[in-house]
Amino acid sequence: MDYIYHEEVYKLKERLNEIKEEALEQIQSAVDEKTLQDVRVYFLGKKGQITEVLKGMGKLSKEERPVIGQLANQIRDEISEALETKKTKLEQAALEQQLEEEAVDVTLPGRPVQAGGPHLLRKVIREIEDLFTSMGYSVAEGPEVETDFYNFESLNLPKNHPARDMQDTFFITKELLMRTQTSPVQARTLRKHEGQGPVKIICPGKVYRRDTDDATHSHQFTQIEGLYVDENIRMSDLKGTLNVFAKHMFGEDRAIRLRPSFFPFTEPSVEMDISCKICQGEGCSVCKGSGWIEILGAGMVHPNVLEMAGFDSNQYKGFAFGMGPERIAMLKYGVEDIRHFYTNDIRFLKQFHGV
After folding, report:
1. Rounded to an integer, what distance in angstroms lies between the CA atom of residue 62 and that of residue 7?
2. Which of 115, 312, 101, 317 is nearest to 199 (CA)?
3. Confidence (pTM)
4. Residue 345 in contact with residue 191, Cβ under 8 Å?
5. For residue 277, what pLDDT is reported?
6. Tag placement on the chain: N or C end, fewer CB within 10 Å?
7. Which parts of the chain sit beneath pLDDT 70?
8. Nearest by Cα to 298 from 343, 268, 341
């Protein structure tokens, strides 16, 4: 004998079928994924239409409840399947539209690629390196975070030496610092040679000093130092080397002069000037009326520096020099502000492509 259901069961069945028809109709008419998601929440969410119908199952007997529950699950599955099918179609349509909108016309001419060039400062450094390597020098490098020993003590600057005040230093600890010069590379290289010459190197690299940035000063800048240690090295060898350098960088018509100076790691020490290109030595505002422009410092390696590195200062002599590539570039190319080298202004950089 068939079980006779209460009228409430038929009402719930009818409502579930209505929900299915309504849901399928809205799914079919959905035009985007947001609308589709709204349909999902409205019919299948925790507070959705099917959940509302199932709340009425409390009025049914235990024999009637499975009937409505089974139908509700069946309809939920049909709606979910329809949702997934529609979602796939919408995604495919969106992809096709995107491909159509982003289509590339291969017949259009390509966009020109602007060729760059070396940074002016890098160009000057490379030019100096090429000159000195052609003269038999090798390029040596060392750490930018240096020890007090190599930055000062090995260069004839013991602790509390007054000349240390000439270089306002970034100290990390009492014994570690940001190198104030590339001279520590010279000291390290000398020690590696264990008292046996010759040593012939240039040392390019970044250095750091506590300085106020302005048109001619920077807290970080580059430096190139040179060192030549061997038997029978004289001041005349230094002068000849610097003369070749000056004429190569600034022109064959440039004259040089050496003036006495002081550096703790050289003795005697000199500063080198070149004749002013603007006034040809007659005196102008650029050279402050002197006819000369200072460009670097140099001197004969102090015997104490040689001895500390293990060299016999009676047998070996040497000379050293140090220059700032920024200053060389500023004088050679007429750059008025050192900050131009570091601001990456493309208008400034373009001026020197191909020079």
Report:
1. 15
2. 317
3. 0.65
4. no
5. 77
6. N
7. 1-6, 166-167, 278, 281, 285-286, 354-355
8. 268
Strand partners, 176: 147
* Residue reference for tokens 């373009």: 350
**Sequence letter at residue 238:** L
Give the pLDDT score at 6.
Answer: 67
Task: Report residue 176 as tokens.
Answer: 């570690």
Q: Specify burial of residue 64 (Cβ count, 10 A radius: 0-12, 13-18, 19+).
A: middle
Nearest alpha carbon to residue 295 among 343, 247, 344, 252? 247
Q: Which pLDDT belongs to residue 245? A: 95
Residues 44, 42: Cα–Cα separation, whole Å: 6
pLDDT at 225: 95
Question: Per the annotation, does 153 bind a ligand?
Answer: no
At 193 the pLDDT is: 94
Q: Report angle CA 47, 53, 59 to the nearest 5 degrees.
A: 125
Tell me how crowded residue 65 is: count the other CB atoms within 10 A of its CB. 15
Strands 220-230 and 199-208: antiparallel
